[in-house]
Amino acid sequence: IDSDGARGCWGINTQGLAGAGAEINAGIRRVGERSDFVRVRAEQNHSCALDAEGQMWCFGENLFGELGDGTTEARSTPVLAASGERFVDLELGTFNTCGRREDGLMRCWGMLDAGVLGIGPSDDSLTVSPITMNVEPPWTTLRLGRVHSCGRRQDGTLWCSGVNDNLQLGLDIGIFSSVFQQVPGQFDRFF
Questions:
Q1: How many of the other CB atoms lie within 10 Å of CB of 69?
Q2: Cα dist from 189 to 40, 73, 103, 160, whole Å
Q3: Tell me: the pLDDT tens digits for 51-65?
Q4: CB 21, CB 15: distance < 8 Å
Q5: Each residue's pLDDT tens digit, 117-173
Q6: CA-to-CA separations, 37 to 28, 108, 112, 146, in angstroms, rounded
Q7: Rounded to an integer, what distance in angstroms lies between the CA atom of residue 137 and that of residue 22?
Q8: What residues contact residue 158 under an 8 Å CB cut-off, 6+ apart?
């Protein structure tokens, strides 16, 4: 983000990853027309940014609906995510995106496999529209891995869901959990 609030990206632009329109490889280029971005996150296959009003704009690969624009079409320029909901923070996983609202409610979209978003058993492999995390807010932090996620609530409790084959959820509960499980202890910070 430059001093005027415009976002610049560079590098390989397959599936629009650098937000440079149709160019294949891009030097530093302004992304989209907006000049009021305040927070940016980039992941392996997509990128998102919050504007000054808290709206999220995403671009790149969209196989699992991770751009949150209601489709699974790749976008080479930023599109409005989550129907314009307002967020104060954002987090990206390999195939997921989440936004934290001011009231601490966490809204997510993208891949649902292996319980990565903790919504419980689902016949669907993806969601292109925001869903609400199933742990009572307020959330302060969420981190998305490729197939698991962990987050901290305002009360200091830590909750994790998804694949657990290497005990990455911090719990000895089997190879995965499709719902968030509380990790024992209190946590002042979670990075």
A1: 22
A2: 21, 36, 19, 15
A3: 999 999 999 999 999
A4: no
A5: 998 877 788 999 999 988 889 999 999 988 999 999 999 999 999 999 988 898 888
A6: 16, 20, 28, 26
A7: 41
A8: 150, 151, 152, 170, 182, 183, 185, 187, 190
